[in-house]
Amino acid sequence: MSPLILEPESLLYRRFSQLIEDADLVFFAGLPGVGKSLLLQQLTLMALAAGRRVTLLQWDTARQPFETPRYPLSDSATHPLVIRATGAWLRRALLDWHARARKPQDMLIGEVPLIGGRFMEVARLKSDEAETLLSDERTQFLIPLPSSEVRALIETRRARSIADPQHENEAHDAPPDLLRALWLDVYRVGVLLGLAPPTKVDAPYSPAVYEAVYRHLLQHRNARVLPIDEPLQPTASVYDRAEQLPFLRATAAQAETILADLEASVSPEAAIAAAARWYEV
């Protein structure tokens, strides 16, 4: 098991301690390269130490059953139909988990990137049973907000971990050039929503624009920002967690059924076109 690196007197430690008491579902929302995986790891360690029984949700694990030979990764990017299928599975999967989580100590901790539509389904209002669960006060969304300096350090560490991974999952992390492209997508959305000024050159990472866009995406949810002004110093891989923790993940049969239903109702071309409007809530 990885060590806990949060100091008990730190703001993050105090906030996490309160979440462990007050929440049953906690989602870290944000771009790759803002520290979601490390924060998820640390909250998980604290929750386990407090006696919570944790189930994890992570995009990179959840999407895998949907990545058939028809829709493989392309330049580290997920096909829009896979993104849509994974999201279609998620709301029902959360309900199923909640139905099984009969004891007060049960807790689900997850990552929801939202960018490009990845798990955007949890942010959108829908008239289904899952809406009650997602809007409940014991379901909390956290937006890690690194300063410009911390974000630059994270990108540097990401390049190093991909080149020399401590865990097999690190080799599949989004590389720095993809991190940059995803940030520019967020900035583009900020401009479309009137949250950022237009620019003729590539915009540098802006915590203010980033926060504004993610607050927009989570306007229907119990969401709060986690400012990250000081870099955390991991002593092991962010993927090194307590062994044998369960992950929320579709079965191969579930994934194939959802993909087949989508293929019957929407073309890959239509899915690609709809993906450009991923930020609509």
Structure overview:
The chain is of the alpha/beta class and 281 residues long. It has a single domain (11-275), classed as Rossmann fold (3-Layer(aba) Sandwich), CATH 3.40.50. Helix content is 44%, strand content 11%. The protein has helices at residues 11-22, 36-49, 59-62, 80-100, 129-135, 148-163, 176-192, 207-217, 252-265, 268-275, and strands spanning 25-29, 53-57, 106-112, 139-146, 223-228. Strands 2-3-1-4-5 form a five-stranded parallel sheet, with helices on both faces. It starts with 10 loop residues before the first helix and ends in a 6-residue tail after the last helix. The model has no long low-confidence stretch (mean pLDDT 90).
Per-chain topology:
Layout: H1 11-22, E1 25-29, H2 36-49, E2 53-57, H3 59-62, H4 80-100, E3 106-112, H5 129-135, E4 139-146, H6 148-163, H7 176-192, H8 207-217, E5 223-228, H9 252-265, H10 268-275
Parallel strand pairs: 1-3, 1-4, 2-3, 4-5
Helix pairs in contact: 4-9, 7-8
**Uncertain runs:** none
Helix content: 40-55%
- Overall number of structural domains: 1
Q: Give a short account of the largest sheet.
A: 5 strands, parallel
* Category from helices, strands and their pairing: alpha/beta
Mean pLDDT: 90
Query: Element order, helices and strands?
Result: HEHEHHEHEHHHEHH
What fraction of the residues are assigned to beta strands by DSSP? Answer: 5-15%
Q: Remind me, CATH topology? A: Rossmann fold
Can you identify the CATH class? Alpha Beta
How many helix segments?
10
Rg on CA atoms, Å: 18 Å
